[in-house]
Here is the input.
Amino acid sequence: MKHKPEIITFINEHRNLFWYTPEQKKEEISEELLLETILNYATLKDSLVLIKLMGYGETLRILQNAKGRKKLNYYPEIYHFFSLYLNKNA
Here is the structure.
């Protein structure tokens, strides 16, 4: 997957959160994994920066699609908070 340069910079600034991903693959992680990891493990400020980079509508779409998966990998309180936030702002 090819990301915008701003998102690649963001990934590189937070590469320690993707410790399980090989170095050469970090810039190719999916938007779903990027959003999930940042919302669950980064700061609120980092989460808001990523949402702005990705766009409110796209972020909401990714978050809503995650609900349809068999196992939701977001912490319940994180999912709830950002669902409310994005529904209001998207």
